[in-house]
């Protein structure tokens, strides 16, 4: 079966309001080991963020759980006051007791605390896109999202997204408030959320793949390197270009600690895979 694809546009309109360049930046790597504590080289991390924005990135993804808190504060130190049109997306709903420890917490009081901490850390009065990092299986989603609804009404949050959800969970959340983005694991080698991607594309909801650079199983390597050679590109650039061609609602957030790697990722936006290349990789 052929995988659906379209010609890549360079921007996506998020929530009917924000025109976003489809190659953004994910800031998670700018933390300590195990996504805990501050970036080891903070001055370099600040340079990477500033270079991303100088290079045309206008969508940066972070989370209250990255650090926790250190990543949002780093972004504020690097980029505040934020230039017009720069969208900072953050997430809430995880406890972080230590490195590599992630405990979903959907209690309304925790969510409210996360939202207020993010506003303070990012030095902003309003979060452009707030995403529920995970649905807590122990708390009804209506309860989890109640403080989010309140924050939207209070003008603290403009738009709301979800992360690592299935179609049924998206539909459940949509009964509570509008959902403008879904952030799920998806890349050339792991397409378990294909149906969710198709659902979001149909509904005009942004799909933000996390871990977008995984180029897939060993069997794909030869195919990718041949195509990369034809485009004078790296395998990572081809993996990103495939995502951009897969659906027009995909927003990419590749992360890196290196300016050279950042520039390499951004160049992927200019690679136009042929129909033949696309189908070869999609098999």
Automatic annotation (TrEMBL):
GO cellular component: cytoplasm
InterPro entries found in the cross-reference section: AKR, Aldo-Keto_reductase, NAD(P)_OxRdtase_dom_sf, NADP_OxRdtase_dom
Assigned keywords, A-Z: Oxidoreductase
Coiled coil location: none
CDD domains: AKR_AKR13B1
Pfam families reported for this sequence: Aldo_ket_red
NADP-dependent oxidoreductase domain location: 23-281
MF term (GO), any: oxidoreductase activity
PANTHER family reported for this sequence: AFLATOXIN B1 ALDEHYDE REDUCTASE, ALDO-KETO REDUCTASE YAKC [NADP(+)]
Protein name (Swiss-Prot/TrEMBL): Predicted oxidoreductase
Organism: Chitinophaga ginsengisegetis
């Amino acid at each position: 079966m052929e995988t659906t694809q379209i010609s890549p546009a360079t921007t996506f309109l998020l929530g009917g309001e924000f025109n976003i360049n489809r190659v953004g930046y994910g800031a998670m790597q700018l933390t300590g080991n195990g996504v805990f504590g501050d970036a080891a080289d903070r001055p370099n991390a600040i340079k990477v963020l500033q270079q991303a924005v100088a290079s045309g990135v206008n969508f940066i993804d972070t989370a209250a759980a990255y650090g926790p808190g250190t990543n949002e504060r780093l972004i504020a130190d690097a980029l505040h006051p934020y230039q017009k049109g720069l969208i900072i997306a953050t997430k809430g709903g995880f406890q972080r007791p230590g490195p590599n420890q992630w405990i979903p917490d959907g209690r309304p009081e925790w969510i409210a605390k996360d939202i207020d901490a993010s506003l303070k850390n990012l030095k902003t009065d309003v979060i452009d896109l707030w995403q529920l990092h995970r649905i807590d299986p122990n708390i009804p989603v209506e309860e989890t999202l109640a403080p989010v609804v309140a924050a939207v009404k209070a003008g603290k949050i403009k738009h709301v997204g979800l992360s690592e959800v299935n179609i049924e969970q998206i539909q459940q959340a949509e009964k509570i408030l509008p959902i403008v983005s879904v952030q799920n694991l998806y890349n050339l080698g792991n397409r378990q959320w294909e149906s969710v991607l198709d659902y979001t594309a149909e509904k005009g909801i942004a799909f933000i793949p996390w871990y977008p650079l995984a180029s897939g199983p060993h069997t794909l390597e030869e195919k990718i390197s041949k195509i990369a050679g034809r485009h004078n590109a790296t395998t990572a650039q081809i993996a990103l270009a495939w995502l951009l061609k897969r659906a027009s609602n995909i927003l990419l957030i590749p992360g890196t600690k290196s300016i050279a790697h950042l520039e390499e990722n951004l160049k992927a936006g200019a690679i136009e895979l042929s129909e033949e290349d696309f189908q070869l990789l999609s098999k």
